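Chapter review. Work through the record for Hydrogenase iron-sulfur subunit before attempting the end-of-chapter questions.
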Amino acid sequence: DLAESLTQGSGAAAKALAWLAHETITLDGLVARVDEEVCVGCGECAAVCPFQALEMVGEGKKQKARVISAACKGCGVCAGSCPTGAIIPAGFTDEMILAQIDEALAVNPEKKILAFCCNWCSYAGADFAGVSRLAYPPQVRIIRTLCAGRIHPRFILHAFERGAGQVLVSGCHPPGDCHYISGNLRAQERVEKLRPKLAKRGIDPSRLRLAWISTTEGRVFQQIIREMAEALERGQPQGSSGLS
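Structure tokens for Hydrogenase iron-sulfur subunit:
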């Protein structure tokens, strides 16, 4: 439709002019950085970044990842794929998240549900359940990340190593609701790849759950946590941690 196309084009041009009208542009402070001493130049981060905010510089063994600050949104999807921990997202470092896991599971970890929630949807959905007074089991411990794509498989393994009864990875509904375009799909890929590895370690894969929860789905969050808590109460086979 010509009229609709012209309207959309005019809207896009207006947005561009709004940016061009300023001599300087203020960027979001949540920008990732690369520890070049740890980076092995595998290129995995650049391959998964939904904003093409990473580039590989150098050649051969000297190749390293570099963040394009103007394009980076700080989502952490790159860090969720980094095999060496060389990507350091502002405010959501590996050390911070691992410390939260340790604290959440410090007492009676086998009775706890550790829930990784993305800031924009599932965390807001959990908050909506709270303000709506939708009661859910108290043994859930929530760890907030900007995006489900920030959740590295080693966080999940660390939780099971610490004895977590169950682990939930939650985010925005696919395919189009993710605030960071494809972060939820990356999270889904990692969870599915991790399941057989859990089984090999003697950990029941059903203890790891993936769920999509929007900002208004407080009842969905409530129901999921209830189901996971009921599984724990039934004495669902937990398996050993499989880790040492």
